[in-house]
Amino acid sequence: MLIIGCDYHPSFQQIAFMDTGTGEYGERRLEHMEGAGQFYRDLRARGVEARIGMEASGYTQWFEQLLAVSFELWIGDAAAISRKRVRKQKTDKQDAELLLQLLIEDRFPRIWVPSREERDLRQLLWHRHRLVQMQTRLRNQLHAVALNEGVRLKKRLWRRKGRAQLESLALMPWANRRRHDLLELLDQVDATIAQLSASIEQEAEKRPQVVRLMTHPGVGALTALAFVLILGTPERFARSKQVSSYLGLVPTEESSGERRHLGHISKQGSTLLRFLLVAAAQITVRSDPDWRRYYLHLAMRRERAIAKVAMARKLAVRLYWMWRNGWEYAQLPKLGSHAGQPGNRLGRQ
Fold first, then answer.
1. What is the pTM of this model?
2. Which of 11, 2, 18, 7 lies closest to 96, judged by CA?
3. What mean pLDDT do residues 289-303 have?
4. Does residue 348 register a pLDDT over 60?
């Protein structure tokens, strides 16, 4: 078998390889896409079995598809690989040699990789999210146009009467052109978001685990589908703490000896899912009295921003256990403090 350590870059890759049968060692720099494509096609034509290891990186889907047909591709945790680097010098050649060494010594920190279908569905979620951000920016600009004319309607500006009032404003030529173009773009974005939202609803209905998560107050098709697609499978995580850490909802820590210092949340996970969890948790706070009491208690002790993140973490933990145990919201045990209640010494019911 041919073992290959691949230091991947958007325009080229540096590889170090060793044949386990003959002990032959070599290294090469392959340009994308012709040089790399020809190299791996030649290996395939000769019937060579190969295992390729590379760090998790962006813009690699074409390369993964090229290798998926005939070769074994391992994706490694970039942070864990970096920790294994002992030299203070860092070059592409040394990185490729390190990846090869980790593969040969069976120390390569391989990670879970979603399927092509799951990645494609993530594109649907990201596309809608970016369009919603664009929609917000367009609306803010139109608010500015209205405010310059003394019209302050806030959310009422997007109702039929408010829209008519905005369109009836007498503006100077270029301000009028700006209003016209912004309204036209906003109508296009609104229509596209509606279509994408309908597609997300359809995809959510195809997955029983997503439908179960949607039974939790405040959790819709978008949040539930994103939770399942980004986490992949609940068996990847032994505890709910690992889920919170994976999503970047736990504080950073710099402690030594008797000194313990906790900072802001790490934000190391998916920004999209973290954003959706915070938004969904706020809806749950408004609809669930228990959640509202808990949120207000945290907000009085700390800050509202910190309380919002805490509720998002609480929601992520709940969704994890619902998914892992196949529960709907009605089956979810109520965990927490129940001090003083008779017959409940363990603090849960």
1. 0.88
2. 7
3. 92
4. no
